[in-house]
Amino acid sequence: MFDTLDAALADCRNRLIRAPRDRKAPMHTPVIITGDVDARVMVLRAFDPAAWTLRLHTDVRAPKAQVIAGDPRVAVLFYDKGAKIQVRARGTGVIASEGDEVEAAWAASTNFARRCYLGEGPGAASDVPTSGLPAEFERTEPDDAQLLPARENFALLKITLTTLDWLYLAHTGHVRAQFARKDAAAAWEGRWVSP
């Protein structure tokens, strides 16, 4: 099934192309690990197969934004249980809060999704269980005017991938390939490794 490095790399690319387009795709919600060794599940919003970049949405006030600003190393873990495919990736992350791409992502979001950026900010302490949203927006979709303050908290996490570790779990014997490139402009170089 996967008997060439090109096939393994194509499998990675095809899964990442599908992931942001299909909410039911197993790799739609990868685990993102920052340089402080903190991990969280995030929604993959876009994948650029030419540049091998991932785009996710975040809050500029989130602790990960400050971590990435100081240490841009990011790891990403994808897993497709049904296909028994795991992809571990590493790259460089950047937080973008301004520019055409950020504006386009904000414009493409629903008001219900945008309301997440109205609250206190990720990690804000509370004495009671809380969504972090202002009370008037609990279970309610704000209008455009009410969302104006939220825009300043919205940002993109863009990750340029530089290494891939692809693992196919098979009862007949696992198969693993690794790929690396020196920078975003370089071609991928692959090798088979023991699982």
UniProtKB/TrEMBL annotation:
SUPFAM superfamilies for this protein: FMN-binding split barrel
Record protein name field: Flavin-binding protein
Which Pfam families does this one have?
Pyridox_oxase_2 (PF12766)
Any idea where the Pyridoxamine 5'-phosphate oxidase Alr4036 family FMN-binding domain is?
38-95
Q: Which GO terms describe its molecular function?
A: FMN binding
Lineage: superkingdom: Bacteria
Q: Which InterPro entries match?
A: Pyridox_Oxase_Alr4036_FMN-bd, Split_barrel_FMN-bd
